[in-house]
Design brief:
Layout (H helix, E strand, L loop, with lengths): L1 E3 L3 H12 L8 E6 L3 H13 L4 E5 L8 H14 L4 E5 L3 E3 L3 H11 L3 E4 L2 E3 L31 E3 L10 E5 H7 L11 H12 L3 E5 L4 E3 L34 E3 L1 E2 L9
Parallel strand pairs: 1-2, 2-3, 6-10, 7-11
Antiparallel strand pairs: 1-12, 2-13, 4-9, 5-11, 6-9, 8-10
Length: 264
């Protein structure tokens, strides 16, 4: 599942990376926040790659993108399509070749975990663009989070390290969390709150080295923070977000892994 507003080039590159993976997602749900052009971008990408997207349109205030609500809409669409493994991937991220089967295997083996994979922050692309077919050559995972090697998993860890750049969980586990708190509008705080929800539901964090992602470079921006619009019955926000403070206007989407499906 991917959430997007703008970032059309990054979305195109992500579509290519998913299409060239060792296993394609059974369903790729893309939530377009106040961005009707996304449908044309993805239709063009489908003609190139053969990978279709299920686009969900979400009206939004450009000054305060509802990332939490967008993720919930995307996951709900994936569940309606019968998804059993849900993957969230930020629109800035390229999927490593084993991301889909890696998350699928991890979630199937331990469905009561909140799974994450290593994320590499890329330098600006060379003139010919990033090497989609050789992303491993760029591998240098973010040092602030566990980064197991391919074929390795780490069970347990600080839930405050959760970020929505790249994560996965089972359909049943998603329902246990009640999703993201839609009182949050903006970036960062909704991740921290979701980690707290996961902990309250008795979930543990786990990391798989097979689900590697690569964050495409873009200029640093400072969008509106994850300031919640809340009503009195809701919990107070944490003092600071410990997940990512998202960069320019996107969230992410849902994939369902199905064993044995080739990239084609």
């Amino acid at each position: 599942m991917t959430v997007v507003h703008g970032r059309h080039d990054h979305l195109r590159h992500q579509q290519r990376s998913l299409a060239r993976g060792r296993q394609r997602p059974d369903a790729w749900v893309v939530v377009a926040m106040q961005d009707p052009a996304v449908r044309d971008v993805l239709a063009e990408g489908q003609r190139e790659t053969g990978l279709a997207a299920d686009v969900v349109d979400l009206p939004a205030d450009p000054g305060a993108f509802p990332l939490a609500a967008a993720r919930n809409r995307g996951m709900s669409r994936a569940l309606a399509r019968g998804a059993e493994v849900l993957v969230g991937l930020d629109v800035d991220c390229l999927a490593g070749p084993d991301l889909v089967p890696g998350y699928g295997s991890a979630v199937t083996g331990a469905p009561d975990r909140l799974w994450a994979g290593p994320v590499t922050y890329l330098d600006p692309p060379p003139p010919g663009g990033y090497p989609i077919d050789d992303l491993a050559s760029l591998d240098a995972p973010h040092g602030a989070r566990p980064a197991p090697a391919a074929g390795e998993r780490v069970d347990g860890g600080d839930l405050r390290l959760f970020w929505s750049l790249s994560f996965a969980l089972s359909a049943r586990t998603w329902r246990r969390t009640d999703g993201f708190d839609e009182a949050y509008v903006g970036y960062g705080g909704e991740d921290t709150d979701f980690a707290r929800r996961a902990g309250a539901a008795g979930l543990r964090m786990a990391w798989t080295g097979d689900a590697r992602a690569y964050h495409q470079h873009h200029p640093v921006s400072r969008p509106p923070g994850g300031a919640p619009r809340r009503h009195p019955a809701q919990r107070p926000p944490l003092p600071r977000p410990v997940g990512r403070v998202a960069d320019a206007g996107l969230a992410r989407r849902v994939l369902r892994a199905r064993p044995g499906r080739p990239a084609g």
